[in-house]
Amino acid sequence: MTTMMRWDPFQDLRSAQDEMAQMSPMTQMSPMLAHALGLHAQPQGNDRATAWAPALDISERKDAYLVTVELPGVEPDDLQITLEDGLLTIQGERQFTSESSEQQFHRVERRYGAFRRSITLPAQVQAEQIEASFDNGVLQIMVPKAEEAKPKRIQVRPGRAEILAASSEDTTPS
Fold this sequence. Notes:
It is a single chain. The chain is built from three helices and seven strands. It has helices at residues 11-23, 31-36, 160-171; strands spanning 56-60, 64-70, 79-84, 87-94, 113-120, 131-135, 138-144. The longest helix is centred in the first third of the chain and has 13 residues, at 11-23.
């Protein structure tokens, strides 16, 4: 059985930056580097408002596309799903809550703050029939295909000569 692991090419760079920031309180990341790393805001004190993107899967069935998004710790009321010009957008926010003001964190690896994921859908979907459900931190969006997008079986008839004869009659010079 094969195990797939998500690789983040910038993780080592982020870790090095985090260690530098802990060594010297005056060390700050340049805004350009922060943008390149996908950080919306530089962590200040206990504020860990960095950009994050939830993992998602897109699968296809005969009748629909299924988008599954992992959103642990996100409340359904904090989600907004829109479809505009074939672009399905999922956005929301995961709040950082500490149990008490006396709690001291030694490591914070989970991402918090606002997120936004956009997926370009094929043109042949039934936008008015899209449904979303949320259970145990997993969002599922079912996007039904339009009739013209569903595969059609073409009946094969015997009599190829008829097709060739009909096409040769159309191309015969007058």
